[in-house]
Amino acid sequence: MAKSKKDDAKNNHKVVATNRRARHNYTILDTYEAGVVLQGTEVKSLREGQASLADAFATVDDGEIWLRNLHIPEYFHGTWTNHAPRRNRKLLLHRKQIDNLVGKVRDGNLTLVPLSLYFSEGKVKVELALARGKQAHDKRQDLARRDADREIIREMGRRAKGMN
């Protein structure tokens, strides 16, 4: 079976940063891939694998999506033209996607959370999620469900090996 271009594109990601807490703190409803408008020294810093999505979030201002609080450290070899580490960065999406997101964010109690930052075919992309915040009891239920699933898989492995 031959691989399609889409399969190659999915495997052609060089992940720079991930937001591991996002899936714990939010219920992910939908994901989008967006381009990021960057300066030259930001791209060079990202190629070195430096970035932090820990406090990052996205907002909608005047029909545009902005990524805020993304930390890209200054490029080590940069000069006085270096970038500000926590500046606001514009996200590139199709107009229909932006309009759809604006409606959903305003109507429901939803937020835009970046899940990962990666290179795709030489361009910096961010995986943006439309998410709803979890309550404390939801987080506990998810942890309990994950532990139960892990125990079931472990027990099935034991039975397959003939230990029980």
Overview of this protein structure:
The chain is built from five helices and seven strands. With 164 residues, it is α+β, with helices and mostly antiparallel strands. The protein folds into two domains: 12-133, Small Protein B, Chain: A; 135-164. The chain has a seven-stranded antiparallel β-sheet. The chain is globular and about 65 Å long. The model has no long low-confidence stretch (mean pLDDT 82).
Shape: globular
User: What would the average pLDDT be, to the nearest integer?
Assistant: 82
| Number of strand segments | 7
- By CATH, the architecture of the largest domain is named Beta Barrel
- Give me the number of helical elements: 5
CATH homolog superfamily of the largest domain: Small protein B
Helix/strand order? HEHEHEEEHEEH
Strand order, sheet with most strands: 1-6-7-2-5-4-3
Short note summarizing the structure:
This protein has helices at 5-11, 22-25, 40-47, 95-107, 136-161; strands at residues 13-18, 26-36, 57-61, 64-68, 89-92, 111-120, 123-133. It has 164 residues and is of the alpha+beta class.
Distinctive features:
164 residues, alpha+beta, Small Protein B, Chain: A, 7-stranded antiparallel β-sheet, 7 strands, RNA binding, SmpB, SsrA-bd_prot_CS, SsrA-binding protein
SSE topology:
Blueprint: H1 5-11, E1 13-18, H2 22-25, E2 26-36, H3 40-47, E3 57-61, E4 64-68, E5 89-92, H4 95-107, E6 111-120, E7 123-133, H5 136-161
Antiparallel strand pairs: 1-6, 2-5, 2-7, 3-4, 4-5, 6-7
